[in-house]
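A quick aside before the break. I want you to see a complete sequence-to-structure record at least once, exactly as it would be stored in a machine-readable document. Don't worry about memorizing anything.
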Amino acid sequence: MTPFILVIFGATGDLAQHKLIPALFALFKANHLPKDFYIVGFSRRSLTDEEFHKHFKLQIEDKKWIDFSKHLFYQSGSFEEKVGYESLNKRLLEIDDKMGACISRFFYLATPPEHYDQILDQLVQTKLSVGCGHEKGNWTRLIIEKPFGKDLDTARDLDKKLSDVFKEKQIFRVDHYLGKETVQNMLAFRFANGIFEPVWNKEYIDHVQITFAQDEGVGNRGRFFDGVGILRDIAQNHLMQLLAAVAMEQPKSFTKEDLRDSRAKVIDAIEIAKEESIIRGQYEGYKKEENVKSDSSTETFVAMKMFINTPRFSEVPFYVRAGKKMQKEVVEISVVFIQTCHLLFKEYGCPEIGNVITFRIQPNEGISLRFVAKTPGAKLGLGSVDMKFNYKEGFGTSGLDAYEKILLDIFAGDQTLFNRSDELESSWKFITDILNKWEKNKSNLLTYKQGSLGPSAANDLIEKDGKKWLLI
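That is the input. The structure line, written in C-alpha cells, reads:
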C-alpha cells in the first residue's frame, strides 16, 4: 500500500471516536497500513496534537497506541471559514515536502450533512480538492457518509455538487453495512453453491423477511434524528442494500461496476404493494428524549410490504421492518421457502414453516438453515431443526470490522462496496414517494411500547397474508 494522508473532518465527533480511529488503529496493529501514513483531524475545537490523542481514551490504554499516535495530527478550523483550510493546506504541503512527493489525499466528511456544502466549497476555493500538483486531482478522494440528502431533490443537488468537484471514481459514498462480512458472504453463498442458486426464485421462495431492530432509542442523536426518521436513516440505505443482496441477479463478473449494476437494477425495481402496506410508528416516550420536539411526528419504526418487479422475484412479497426501542438488537434476513410437505406427511403434522435460510448480520454474524426432520421416538412425527454457522466458530475469527474493510477499500481505490449515484437516485425516488404520502396523512403515526416488536399493525401487515414474522 502506498503512503497516504487521511483528513477527517469532524474528527472530535462520534463517528471518528467510535468507528474511524478504532478501525484505523486495528488496521495499524494488524500491519494493514503502509509505513508512511498521516491522519489529520479537522474540527472546531482548539486542540494540540497531544490533546487530540487524549480524546480517544479506550485506545490509549493499548501499548501500541504510542506508535500509532505518531501518525495522528490535528488541525483546528471552522467548516465555513477559509483560514482553517489554508492552515490545513500548508500542513499537507509540509507532509509532501517531508515525503519528497505528492502523496494521495483522502478527505473523509465525518460530519452532520448540513456541513457538506460548506466543506466542499472550501475544498474548491483553497484548491485542496485538486491535491498536490496532480492534474484534475486524480490522487484525491472524497469520502462521504449517509444520509446522502433528505429526499430526491436534495440528493440530486448533493450529487451534482459532488460531480462538479470530483469524478465519480473519486467519490466514495459510505454505507457501512455493505462492509459487513455476512452481507458480502451472501454473494458467495448464493453464487458459489450450486444447491441454492437453482431454487433462488419465485418458483420456490414464498416470501422474504428483513428485520432491523435496535434496542436503544435515539440517545444523544435526537438533534439529528428528529425530523429525519428511521425511513431516511435506515430504510433508504441499509435496508435497500440488504434487499439488493438478496434479490440481485448474478453479476457478469465480480468487478465493481458489474456488481453495482446488479444492485442498481434491483433497487430500481422495488415497489410498494399498496399504500396501506406501510406502517409507521413512534415509541412511547420519544417526545421526551433530549433534543426532540415535544410535538414531533418523526417515525422511529417502519414496516413495509413490497415487491421487486423482476422476472426472478415478481409476486414474491418482501416484508421489511426497522425500529428503535425494540425487544432486542438484531439485524437479519430470512428467506422463507414454499412449504412442500407432501400429502404423505399431512396426517403427522407438518411444521407451519418448512425451509428457511436466515442471514444474521448482527449480533453474532452467521447463517442458519432450517429444515424438516423426523422427531425422535417410535411414532413418525415431524419438526423443524436448524443448522447454524457463525464466523467465530467456523473460521476462528469474525473477520474485519465493517469500517476496517471499508477503509482498506478506500485506500486501494476499490468502489465495489460503495453506493453509485444511480443506486441513490432509485432509492430516493422510492423513499420520497412514501414521504410525500405521509406528508398528506400525518394521522397514521402509531405508538408502540418500548421493548416491544413495534405497533400491532406491523403484525397485521404480514398475518393478513397468512404468514408470521419469525421471532427475533
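Two observations worth writing down. The two ends are 42 Å apart (CA to CA). Residues 229 and 298 are 5 Å apart (CA to CA). We'll return to this after the break.
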